[in-house]
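Researcher: For the record, we're logging two predictions in this thread. I'll number them. Prediction 1 follows.
Model: Prediction 1, sequence and structure:
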Amino acid sequence: MVTLQIENLPDELYNRIQNLAAENNFTLNEAVIYLLKQGFQPNELKIVQQKKPMSEILQKIRSRPRVDPTNFGLPDSTVLIREDRNR
């Protein structure tokens, strides 16, 4: 394999690569290789999800249908919490 050395890498870019590596349990080397692959294959399924605005996340959560746990044979969490508090 070939070794690539990069000179004059801006601190901000280096920090962003470090953050990407930390967030995804990559080494710095793995993060750089991942980014290079993504740059050359933009239609490939991405492992790293882009951060979405909080309003979009909340809207998605609020639009989910309500589920009754008793329909699945599960106890109601309210009853379980009440029992736990009464101990």
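Researcher: Logged. Prediction 2.
Model: Prediction 2, sequence and structure:
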Amino acid sequence: MIRIMRGPVLAERGQGLMEYALIIMLVAIVVIAILFLLGPAIYNLYVTAVNAI
């Protein structure tokens, strides 16, 4: 009886881990997109700061 009840619990743990993995993947995609779009502007800020020194 205990073996039968363990199955859904383990499945729910796997589902929770999968949800966390999807959230982390979504955050990573957003960060990469922001860096891709703002990368040249950030680079120009660093170049300006280095040239001012």
